[in-house]
Design goal:
Helix content of chain A: 25-40%
Distance between the termini of chain A: 37 Å
Number of strands of chain B: 16
Shape of chain A: globular
Helix content of chain B: 25-40%
Number of domains of chain B: 1
Structural class of chain B: alpha/beta
CATH topology of the largest domain in chain A: Elongation Factor Tu (Ef-tu), domain 3
Strand order of the largest sheet of chain B: 3-4-7-8-9-10-15-16
CATH class of the largest domain in chain A: Mainly Beta
CATH superfamily of chain B: Aldolase class I
Number of helices of chain B: 8
Oligomer: heterodimer
Strand order of the largest sheet of chain A: 4-3-7-1-2-6-5
CATH superfamily of the largest domain in chain A: Translation factors
Largest sheet of chain B: 8 strands, parallel, barrel
Strand content of chain A: 25-35%
Radius of gyration of chain B: 18 Å
CATH architecture of the largest domain in chain A: Beta Barrel
Strand content of chain B: 15-25%
Shape of chain B: globular
Number of domains of chain A: 2
């Protein structure tokens, strides 16, 4: 894939006659010149695109958790909370596939990625340094519905709850900021096994989103599962909506709590993905819609689903 | 500038690079990434007559330089394809090939008869070789007799050219290739995926819900190339080569081994613009070697 970059832009234009479609006004200058593919895809008015050279601006780590800030203007501009990107972590054919990462935040021309080392792909990514570039496709999938909190005659004065377990907190920073910016009250619940699994608590706090924390071992905040904390929270005050991302057992419990309390909920599901953009049908989960169950692509129809749609294995 | 057009006899392509079935959706999925008209063509995801649910997950496992899949040919069926997808493909200036599936020989015939009534299809690719739908990877392409009978049946029913897609999971690829040719197949495409297994040693469970799946990607390229060379050396009908093509150089290997065109598969999943990059790299090769026509190199392996 890296080989593509070696072929000169002028050659591509000669061969393919690009840009065959006229770039709409304003888009031309959005093309940074360094990246011909950005121009190429923007000519198609696409929502998702390939950025083969997104520069890592900074890198921060806490044990096996990492926060990367990456400059990718067009992906950043189009990103919505709950969407994800696919990253090619190696120039060699192994590991072969891209890896999916939630968009943790958007800040001007930058997107932010928060991840934990869970395997070979994330380990390779974690070793990249500021100044290096990443080959990214995005933004992908359907994100959170910010209007969920106001559905079914719900008063928006009630807070929306954003519940993250471990690295599942990743998309909820973006979501919570968007909710707050839209004037919707939001409360973040952030759970992990132990205090070191909650490295983002200060980041949330600084953003004015002071999270209620829980740890399984009681080393920080509420002692117990984040779902126990959620249950307590729901008893104390009714919520407008629940948004959640984390391990499947956690999401399953939250779906039950939301149903019992009749609160609309959206869950961001995780799945092994082949492509991330709907071509391979490898990432499916069982979803019930209009009374019918089927295998639905997490990458294209998700990763965010209504809690009541998910058919748990 | 090298002339990239390639003539399969039954179908002229503007260049020899097609996108392979199962890795390219129904086509429109790739419109955000590339101009479909720049491709030699593409083969849409396998179609059964009726919608098909596919296999339970996990459906994918990554291996060293490879990918094992057991999607199970989840798909929308011919009616939804004709109503929702085909209208979006009919304006394209590229070869749209439909990958035809069937649980029975009758179903293959029914799919072809239905699609014969639709516009905008250049050819059919008979998927007699998917290893993920029946137990132990069984499929018609494992038997020369079944291959012959099925191809003959579909050829009689079809008003369009038929490409038969062969399985690599056979003892003698030449025997199967000759059976398809003799039954009237207009062309061959090979290879489909290799029947494969991955196990999680921690749980001792197979990594795919389907247990076995089909291996694709760079890991299979030398194996595929050998099979393609053997088949292309013996049949007279045009051969389309595929199996782990990631670069222009990979594609050229298949052309030199004796194919008239190639299909790019797994590479599309990783780099949705892979097919265009491969075309550019082939073009570049043609320039460096001063080729007037790219097809001049087809089958020119120096043994």
């Amino acid at each position: 894939m890296a080989h593509f970059k070696e072929i000169k832009e002028s050659r591509l234009r000669e061969i393919f006659g690009f840009p065959g479609k006229k770039l709409s006004p304003g888009r031309e200058e959005a093309c940074p010149g360094k990246s011909f593919l950005l121009c190429l895809t923007s000519a198609n008015e696409a929502e998702m695109m390939v950025d083969p050279a997104a520069r890592i601006v900074s890198r921060e780590s806490w044990g096996s958790y990492f926060l990367f800030i990456v400059e990718s203007p067009l992906i950043a501009r189009r990103a919505a909370a709950g969407q994800f990107v696919m990253i090619k972590v190696a120039d060699v054919p192994s590991p072969l596939l891209r890896r999916p990462f939630s968009i943790h935040n958007r800040n001007g021309k930058e997107i932010e990625l928060f991840f934990k080392i869970t395997g070979e792909g994330t380990a390779i990514l974690s070793r990249k340094k500021a100044g290096e570039t990443l080959d990214i496709i995005g933004p992908l999938g359907k994100g959170f519905d910010l209007a969920l909190a106001a559905e079914k005659g719900q008063a928006t004065a009630k807070a929306a709850l954003a519940v993250g377990g471990g690295r599942g907190i990743a998309p909820l920073f973006f979501l919570a900021r968007e909710l707050a910016a839209a004037g919707r009250p939001v409360k973040v619940l952030y759970g992990g096994r132990t205090a070191s699994d909650l490295p983002l608590r200060d980041r949330f706090k600084t953003a004015g989103l002071d999270p209620a924390c829980s740890t399984d071992d009681g080393s920080l905040g509420f002692k117990g599962l984040v779902t126990d904390l959620l249950e307590k929270e729901l008893k104390a005050s009714p919520a407008a909506a629940i948004y959640a991302c984390g391990p499947e057992p956690m999401l399953r419990t939250i779906a039950g709590l939301a149903a019992a309390a009749r609160i609309p909920a959206q869950l961001s599901l995780e799945s092994h993905m082949g492509c991330g953009f709907g071509a391979c049908w490898g990432c499916v989960k069982k979803i019930r819609r209009d009374g019918e169950e089927s295998w639905v692509k997490v990458c294209e129809d998700g990763p965010v689903f209504r809690a009541e749609e998910v058919v748990w294995p | 500038m090298t002339d990239l057009t390639t003539d399969l006899g039954f179908l002229k392509l503007k260049n020899p690079v097609l996108a392979a079935s199962g890795t390219f959706g129904y086509g429109p999925e790739f419109e955000p990434f590339l101009d479909l008209n720049k491709l030699g063509g593409f083969v849409v995801k396998g179609l059964y007559y009726d919608p098909r649910p596919g296999n339970p997950p996990p459906r994918l496992v990554e291996t060293a330089s490879g990918l094992i899949n057991a999607i199970g040919l989840q798909g929308i069926g011919v009616r939804a394809f004709a109503e929702k997808v085909l209208p979006r493909l009919q304006g394209l200036d590229t070869a749209v090939i439909v990958n035809v599936c069937g649980s029975t020989d009758e179903e293959f015939e029914a799919v072809v008869k239905f699609l014969d009534g639709q516009k905008g299809i250049a050819a059919y690719e008979l998927n007699i070789s998917c290893p993920n739908v029946e137990k132990n990877g069984l499929c018609p392409a494992l038997s020369p007799r079944h291959t012959r009978d099925l191809v003959r049946r579909v050829k009689r029913a079809s008003r369009r050219p038929v490409i038969t897609k062969l399985s690599p999971n056979v003892t003698d690829i030449v025997e199967i290739a000759l059976a398809a040719e003799k039954a009237g197949s207009d062309g061959l495409s090979l290879v489909n995926t290799f029947l494969a297994l991955a196990i999680d040693p921690e749980t001792r469970q197979p990594r795919l819900a389907n247990v076995y799946g089909g291996l694709s990607g760079p890991a299979i390229k030398p194996l595929a190339l050998r099979l393609v060379h053997q088949a292309a050396s013996r049949v007279k009908i045009p051969v389309i080569g595929l199996g782990g093509i990631m670069t222009g150089a990979d594609a050229l290997e298949f052309l030199i081994a004796g194919t008239r065109a190639v299909q790019v598969g797994t590479a599309n999943l990783i780099d949705p613009q892979a097919a265009l990059r491969i075309i550019a790299e082939i073009e570049d090769y043609g320039r460096r070697h001063g080729l007037a026509r790219l097809t001049d190199i087809c089958g020119t392996i120096k043994t």
